[in-house]
Amino acid sequence: MNEQFSQPPAIDTSWIKRAGYIGPEGTWTHQSSLDLFGDQVELVPFSDGLFEAYENGCVDVACVPATTSLVGATPYLDQVLSLRSPTIIAEYPKVLSYSLMASKDASFSMIAKVVGHPVALQEVAGWLDENMPNVERESCTGATSFVAKQKSPSIAAFGPVLGAKLYNLQILRTGIEEGLHNVTRWWVLGHRTPAPTGFDRTTLHLRVSEQNLSCVLNRFSKDDLTVLNLYQRPTCERLDTHQYVIDVAEHVLTHPALAALAEIDGLRILGSYPRRY
What we know:
This protein is an alpha/beta fold. 25% of the residues lie in helices and 35% in strands. It folds into three domains: 3-94 and 181-190, D-Maltodextrin-Binding Protein, domain 2 (3-Layer(aba) Sandwich), CATH 3.40.190.10; 98-176, 3-Layer(aba) Sandwich (D-Maltodextrin-Binding Protein, domain 2); 200-274, Alpha-Beta Plaits (2-Layer Sandwich).
């Protein structure tokens, strides 16, 4: 397994007291926050209001799943784009290995319904089709806590092993969809741009009309910028205007052309940070 997808990045926590994450406890984002910060900072779960807490300074950083290799953009990516001035300070790509968890008196053959985060259900859909084709599927945030509250042997949840430990559930199956094909990339949003490392990534947010898109892309080529990936996101405004998340190689402090891109109408820099892959 590639090391860059299994080891969390080193983050300077000297200025971080509170880290917010999309809760509840026992989710993959909780696990990733533990990987990133351990017990060095206070971890605060948010069912709602994480982004407002980040913008208002109620938390110093926010841990957010942005993209996945199986599903693409997560629902939280657009919420990041709607923030006034987000600053990405780190990325954390992590190989996921789902577990199927249920109450202590359940067995695999008893399960009639499985619940999971909407993204999780998409990521385990192939395994479900093969191993539990007749079981009902239901989207649910905080799936493990939901199963613990229901106390029904016929309901199971998908999530990390952490959920079973926190909610006293048994693990019926594990290692589900584990592999480099199932990687989620988390962003850590903060307020201080980390120093260049020599292997960095800069993430841009571009809102542009179809008419002007080629001009912007030509600018990247002219400035010798290496585009690593590009995600199109809807604007929910006009059919001929789009927004894009564009990752380019290098750091804004080491590539002069990156800073100059901020002069382009509709383009802003979301952050420069150590590159993990």
